[in-house]
Amino acid sequence: MIKTAIASTNSITLKTKASYGVGALGKDLVCSIIYIYLMFYYTDVVGLSAVFVGTLFLVTRAIDAITDPIMGMIVDNTRSKYGKFRPWIVIGTLLNAGCLVAIFFTHNISESYVYVYASLTYILWGITYTIMDIPYWSMIPSLSSERPEREKLVVWPRIFASFAWLVMGAYGLLIIDKLGEGDKGAGFFFFSVLIVGFFIFSSVLTAVNVKEKVAFKSLGEKFKIKEAFNVIAVNDQLKVLIGAVLSFNVANQLIGGFAIYYFTYAIGKESLFPVFMLASGLAEMAGVFLFPYISALLPRRFTWIIACAFPITCCLLLWFAAMTMPESAVLVGVAGALFKFGVGLVNGLSTVMLADVADYGEHRLGKRSESIIFSVQTMLVKFAGAFAGFFVGVGLSIVGYVANTEQSASTVLGLKSLMIVLPIILMMLSAYIYQRWYQLHDGFRQP
Fold first, then answer.
1. In a domain, 288, yes or no
2. Domain housing 87
3. 14-23 pLDDT tens trace
4. C-alpha span between 102 and 124 (Å, rounded)
5. Which terminus of the chain is more exposed, N or C, with fewer CB under 10 A?
6. Which residues contact 418 (CB under 8 A, 6 or more apart)?
7. What are residue 222's phi and psi, to 5 degrees?
8. Which DSSP string corresponds to 381-417?
9. pTM of the entire structure?
């Protein structure tokens, strides 16, 4: 049977929006240090093989393909006096905090056990992040049933999340060097401890101040495991969204993953990396902030295409800069801004689209399943990071990259190609999938 919404009010208070946003800041500080620096930490600090690290990222995501929908099912089946989302946010945060610190202790493990230790801690990090992230994003439909209110709400966590990535990208290496006093291993470890402290605070703040306002009266039974996967299988628009978001985010993660290698070894100026990341972070925040206004001005069917065009232009500008003025901080900054402005638009748009897809899925299946639907978002972020990490690891090996040494001319050319060409292809694929098959441009209304 279909669940029907019972809402006393659809407006969302400033206190709720701000608390929800701070929650995103904490969890994305955790996420950003993993996706920006973990490959670098494993290869250049711990000394692991780049191919092994890339393969580890990919294999771990195969596990997530099973655990993420199951976690969504568990959340949807949760009944407690604190709601079905907030208990899991707190539990997942505490577990994931311990895993993050354990990951950045890897450089202290002996060579005999380091590969096993790295594998176990990273796999556990992925699973525990799922426990916290899925209920966090799944709360959105329960906070208001009105699409305009959801779009306004989405701006808050996305801006705070973008700020987390800005801080991590622009100042992460500086903070690591300061904390470690030149010892990068110690710097990464102490930085992870600081992040964990704020992570726990932000999640508790969210759990205390962000409460469900839209209840759903269910006339059906709880979800079973088979039904959890069926939710994805029968929702054709969800599968289209998966294709568009995954290809976009893999391209996004490739640029972010190769950037530190690109500027350090291909361009030969590591100081350009924080310039690129600072401009990127500011532009992403601007993209998220302007998303509701751009969405109101432009037809929804064109917004995704425009968002894809920004990172493509970024890659073309980086190629031009590499050929003409490789050490130009201005061109690098402009390229970074183009890159993440498009990412900011997609971050806002994809979250609202998931809420629409959840409404559509309820019509198709006859059950409300927002947590299972939103588990796809968590899975896509991690899959994108995994595929990007795999491509980075394998790509570095193919082009002959050797850590902490001057690279050959062929390796430099390979780094430039991997940073620029492959993301362009994937962004074009994302735009094509969206334009060709996505249909819920104006949301979903019950027939």
1. yes
2. 14-206+222-437
3. 999 999 999 9
4. 10
5. C
6. 254, 258, 391, 392, 395, 399
7. -65, 155
8. HHHHHHHHHHHHHHHHHHTT--TTSPPPHHHHHHHHH
9. 0.73
